[in-house]
Amino acid sequence: MFLTFSPPSPRALGAVAAFIALTLDQAHKFFMLNVFDIAQRQPVRLTSFLDVVLSWNKGVSYSLLASQTAGTRLLLILFQASVVGCLVFWLWRAPRRLTAAALGFVVGGALGNVADRLRFGAVADFFFFHTALPVGPLANYVFNVADAAIFLGVVLLLLEGVSAGPTARPSAAER
Question: Could you tell me the membrane topology recorded for this protein (predicted)?
Answer without folding.
Answer: Multi-pass membrane protein
